[in-house]
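ok so for the tutorial part 2 we go from a plain amino acid sequence to predicted structure tokens. step 1 is just haveing the sequence, like this:
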Amino acid sequence: MRLQKKTYSFYIFNLRPFFGLKLYSISFYLFLFVHLEMVYSQESLPLTGNFSNTPLSSVIEYIESESGYRMFYLDKWITSDSISLDFNNEEVESLLEKILLKTELNYYIKEDEKRIFIIKNAIIYDELPDGFFKDSTKEEEESSIGQPSNAPPPTFYNEDIRPTTKKYPVARIGKSDPNNLQLEYTLSGKAINSVTGEPVPDLTIRVKNADRFVITDSNGNFSIQLSSGYNILVVRAMGIASMEREVIMYNDGNLDLFLEEGLQQLDEVVVQADAARNVEDADTGSEQIDSEASKNIPLVLGERDILQVAKALPGISSAGEGATGLNVRGGKTDQNLVLLDDAVIYNPQHFFGIFQALNPFTTKGVDIYKGAMPVEFGGRLSSVFDIRTKNGNVEKLAGEGSIGPVTGNLALEIPIVKEKSSLVVGGRGAYADWILRSLDEPSLNNSNASFFDGIVKYHHKINDNNEVKATAYYSKDAFSITSDSLYNYDNRLFSLRWDRKMGERTTTAMVLGNSNYGFGIDFDGQANTDFNLDYSINETEFKYKFRTLLNERNTLDYGISAKYYSVNPGSIRPDGNESSISTILIDNEQALEGALFLGDEFKLNDRLLLDLGVRYAFFAALGPGTQQRYQEGLPKNESTAQETISYDGAEIIKTYGGPEARVSARYLFTPDFSIKASFNNSYQFLHTLSNNTTVSPIDTWKLSDLNIAPQTGYQASLGLYKNFKENEYELSLEGYYKGMDNVLDFKTGADLFLNENVETEVLQGDGKAYGVEFLAKKNRGDLNGWLSYTYSRSLYRFDSEFSEERINNGEFFPSNFDRPHDVSVITNYRITRRYSLSANFVYQTGRPVTYPIGTFRFNNADFVAFSDRNEFRIPDFYRLDLGLNIEGNHKKNKLAHSFVTISVYNVLGRNNPYSVFFVTENGEVKALQSSIFAIPIPSITYNFKF
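step 2 — the prediction. this is what the tokens look like for a chain of 946 residues:
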């Protein structure tokens, strides 16, 4: 005989399956309280044996047959887990502890009756905790169950009175531990589209009747603190059917939410993150665009284009109509990090920037960071464009496509393993030659152009904790502006990503990516000057990042990244034996770039949220190669070169690096009104060399080395954010200031391409940019859209004691893309469920230009005297586009659902100048203007989806 006293707690447990009783509230205690204090029972016999991959159900049957106890449980509670265990003279209680350790099962032993009850999630009290029937005034007093008096009381839930209208079963999370009862537990999980299998980002998960919520990240993951016991989660997002989910928390645990699509998504023009995200997050200067949002915005030739939509947001512009590259908050185009599924894409646009190089039907959306940059990103001064592709449909074959006047697109979603894996395949091509012939430029009438791009993405969910994604992408442009030259450029990338859950609080992502960009010119003239010219840059990156929920207030992001660059600076070779062109080969460049990063999203209280991070960036230029050393204190040119230094393979030429700060804060005045501030600084070790206004195909990327230092910069921003009428309306006002060092520009008449000593042709100076951005947005209703206004300045200064290294006498001057005023209006009016009208209006200050201001004669020759660089401006730019959108009928059982867009680009026929150039005729200097689209451009595009 032995004396045994057991105390357990019972949480939300229905005893009817055992006893056939209908119990309410606390009545079940009357059955359990047979003995409240001491219970005498016979000594149980110890057990000896071993299990080898034995099913749990068999283990329980063995214990029942050998121990003399009767076991009570429901078969559906017993998992399919297998047990491997050696045991010798093991007590029944100890053996049960071991075999149930990794399950959600607890047990209760009733010694006097030789019965063992297997219980899922819950534990059982055979004593009531102190203060159960009245409030306890002793805050620190230990109760009779061994827990503090502020431990959570037992929770009661009657399954029988649960409304039959509830769609989802009650989710019971975790396993109660009598030695670690808490008032709150952590629920983690992932939001998943139940039809497509894709994660649902930016989904708001709120606790009903409590001021507590969380927003899913870009991969659909979430983590939220819930009270012990019964909770109701309310889930809402645009395009997702609202859902309430009952959750009972026994301990920390995981719950994936499978969500259904909502029909309301057809009513939206702007598919945004959660409606309150702009107020609640700590990010400044962040924007989100869903690819579906662009279908109702009239763009050139009916093409959906998220990058063109981005230009309608405050702080984002371009050098002009048809210009490749985006200028973000006064930064150069090379200061943007553009990622496609975690791999860099160097030129994400086709055909002089008129089209994006992304299939709109495989693209899910883009996160844009132009202020507070996440701690994992670096290497650029201005912004990050994090473009994501869709996961394929894991249930059935699906597809989407379009046929327009210039391009044809098609995307297929192919299930590989049902509910686990899928393949997305997308391709598009252009038949755009007629556009060049329609432009207001006689020299282009005989030109031709074509482009295509293709993408393949494989997505596989291995299990609840592991997910793998792989993306391969290729695009190519080929065009001939003259009859003797064929220009071509291409992008190629591959990325592999493994997402993994490491326990309940930590998720990881391991990323491997490779990117390549190159261009070439094939010249075939009448003289013996035929040649082939090419250039390329290749990079390979490995990144391993972690996200850990430390507690309710702290979430850590940390990791490491490493990148290897290989640059072919250019080569030219004769084409054919008859060519008189000499071969020129520039030495390749190599470099390593790495970073360590750590960030903490720290919630001080319900009002104040901090996002603090530090990133250490490192760069090393590597051999083999040669570098010139110049006399200190003198301009870099041939006459000041002192020596040529040779470096062996993998030898370090020069290193750079330093810490980068990522600091942002949000303070909530009310749930729909906040103020945010941020500061960050960055290093950029990669530069473009160009003396053109736009990013032309012959622009080259240059690594920092012995003579060209990395660009550095910092940005501070402050903003106010306010939502109205249950987040139907948004207002934001944000100001920023950006300082930059070692920005590159070129000397007058510089020869940048195929130059072995290119450092003698460029200058490095200071830059500053500042501005104010205003955004007003209406998210719902028949009339919706947004108005954005940006006042901004972008200024550079190149000063030196030597005149050849000085521009505009060393004073600040406007950059090529300085546009003080920028206004965009996007509207959509839904006439019926099938018909809607949309409009897009843009106004911008004319960009800076350098004008001739006189002529002079020297040595019997006429010369033109020019103004200071960018002293004047071309005329202001404005454009109005209109569109009619026609949905097909909404019958469910159709072969394909259709969507037709009829649009007119540049309705007013505004002859917006793209550039102004000057020619001399009969001794007279004349100014000429070139435009891209000087007349209205109508188009009709047919879209289909199945």
